[in-house]
Amino acid sequence: MPRLESPGVDAPGEVVGRVLGTADATPLQFWTAVAPGSYLQLDDVVVTRRELPGGEPVTIAGVVTQVRARHEGAQFDSDVFAIADGTLPAQVQEAAEITTTRVDPETYVPPHPGAVVHRARGEARRQALHFDRMERPIPIGTGRDGVPVYLNADFLDGQRGAHVSISGISGVATKTSFATFLLYSVFNSPVLGGDRVNTKALIFNVKGEDLLFLDHPNARLDDRTRAAYAQLGLPAGPFGDVRVFAPPRAGDRSGSPDVSSRLSGVDTFYWTLAEFCAKRLLPYVFADADDERQQYTMVVHAVAAHLERHAQPAEGGGGVSIDGVAINGYDTLVDFVVDRLNDEETRHSWTGSAVGQGTVNAFARRLIASKKDLSRLIRGDLATRRPHEVNTAASAQVSVVDLHNLPDRAQRFVVGVTLKTEFERKEKAGTAKPLLFVVLDELNKYAPRDGSSPIKEVLLDIAERGRSLGVILVGAQQTASEVERRIVTNSAVRVVGRLDPAEASRPEYGFLPQAQRQRVLLAKPGTMFVNQPDIPVPLCVEFPFPAWATRPAEAGAAPAAVLRSITQSADPFAVVGAKSGLSDDEIPF
After folding, report:
1. Below-50 pLDDT ranges, the chain
2. Which among 145, 144, 162 has a CA at the least distance from the CA of 153?
């Protein structure tokens, strides 16, 4: 998209009023009396000028942040009835509070009372909202005036800032819908240039199966919605390149994906026992933030190190052998570890001599409790040659990891291990490009303000170092006040949908003007307030209805590319559930 710039503001738009003379006007805020027959609403953009002696005029532009109306001539509250009956003379006067967004040139003087105020249109609006300074604008929706609103890509992809924080009430604020629309806009606008082809997105689906159909057209798409996308310079259609990953069904030895609404193009993800031991994944079994406060965490790391040293991959499968004992399931591994910890002769070689029996028992209880949640994810009975890892570098442009059928502990394990693996892969690459966008809902669960956990440490690493490595976090949560402060403060872009009244009063939303703090209590689905460093006032944005299916009932015909999963593409004759080395000629039938 060409740079949005133009010399000067000669014809900003129609006159809507004059700067008020009965209220103080400052360089950063002033009031405008609305002219008869005109109106101003919240979020309207206006512009006025101040002539300076011996210098060029100063253009002052701003956004309407409050509007009021009153009777002039009324003295008592009851006068409103007499005025309405025509027995008391008075007139209605509206006034609008303007918060300054741009002063050009930067001579900070207040506008003079009586100065003409114009509604900003065209180039005047772009300049008032700093869109003319954006080298790479990303369309994110339309304003209240129905004209496109842009996000500066420099504050998204790491050039000058990175990360997005989205807050709002679950089910009403449409946090995930806005996150996916932002990705769609990035992938379908020219802001990334030639890097767009290799840019990846990793989306964790935690609620229902709504995000499993991003590559299906929305059957409810109508001409009005298509026109809304066209106005933003975007095509109206589904994501073009999507792969879906789901956990294995519980109790299913074939490893079929645990999804019900989507029957094709879904791959199963899991970890073999050999990978679990070699990569020291045990700490992610204890991924609750409260766990790090307990003494048994020293046992966790000692046992993980012992498994890494002594677990040998079993021949022809994903199992392991420890001390000559063959182990082919997570249940068996847990029982083996607990037996060794309860044995006086072997305990100290696993935990060290300084650990007491009470600490070991606390560890063992929690490890045993994890069997029910993690047995289907950590396997020794499925083929190792079969693709089973979530690897965005080898996957589609958008990888959706489905977690909604997993219990809380298993969700934490998957998120923690997947993010750790992806971040380490980017660290080894040593370059910021290609970019990786990570969309994670319920961020307050994985990175709470208090406590520490392996997942929280990974997310903090992404928030603080991800910008330089090209890992962009798009985090969504109901309550930003409950998310680790360093993650929120490192987010260059902050988005707010409808909020609970108690949450809206928290200091984390101090960037919202008072009027907007009240408005977020009433915001309808699809309306978001976007704050970005370029613009001093958060902008009210309405983004269009998704052009991709957001639930199974909306899904149109699937494109041919999604009918085959990665597993089928890699080896169409693979024996599902077979161990490595077993060919189809050896099937006993």
Report:
1. 1-9, 568, 570-589
2. 162
Identify whether the C-beta of residue 217 lies closer than 8 Å to the C-beta of residue 557: yes
- Going by C-alpha positions, the residue among 340, 336, 279 that lies closest to residue 304 is 279
Its pTM stands at 0.88
Query: Distance between CA atoms of 125 and 9, rounded to whole angstroms?
Result: 9
| Strands of the sheet with 312-313, listed across from one edge | 312-313, 320-322, 325-327
Q: How far is C-alpha 387 from the chain's CA centre?
A: 27
CA–CA separation, 551 and 15 (whole Å): 46
pLDDT of residue 359: 84
pLDDT at position 564, please? 54
Whether the Cβ atoms of residue 2 and residue 19 lie closer than 8 Å to each other:
no
Closest CA to 254 of 563, 567, 564: 567
> What's the helix, strand, coil split of the chain in %, to 5?
35, 20, 45
Q: Which of 2, 16, 31, 4 is nearest to 147 (CA)?
A: 4
Helix crossing, 297-310 with 330-342: angle to 10°?
A: 110
Q: Is 234 left (phi over 0), alpha (psi -120 to 50) or beta?
A: beta
Owner of token pair 């219990």: 407
- Note if the bond before 387 is cis, omega within 30 degrees: no
CA distance 430 to 424: 10
In this structure, what DSSP letter does residue 146 have? S
Q: Are 330 and 378 in contact (CB under 8 A)?
A: yes
Instruction: For helices 344-351 and 297-310, give the axis angle rounded to 10 degrees.
Output: 100
Structure token pair of residue 545: 């209805």
Give the containing element (helix H, strand E) for 79: helix 79-85
Residue 349 zone, left/alpha/beta (φ > 0; ψ -120 to 50; rest): alpha
Q: How many CA atoms lie within 13 A of 2 on its CB side?
A: 3
What SS3 state is found at 423?
helix
Tokens 């009777």 belong to 71
Cis omega (within 30 of 0) on the bond before 137?
no
| Rounded Cα distance, 572 and 565, in Å | 10
Tally the C-alpha atoms within 13 A of residue 216's C-alpha that lie toward its C-beta.
Answer: 23
Whose CA is closest to 441, among 179, 199, 243, 201? 179
Other beta carbons within 10 angstroms of residue 326's beta carbon come to: 14
Q: Which two three-digit tokens encode residue 412?
A: 């934490």
Helix H or strand E encompassing 445: helix 443-446
* Separation of alpha carbons 158 and 192, rounded Å: 12
The DSSP symbol for 63 reads E
What's the pLDDT tens digit per position in 218-272? 999 999 999 999 999 999 999 999 999 999 998 888 888 888 888 788 999 999 9
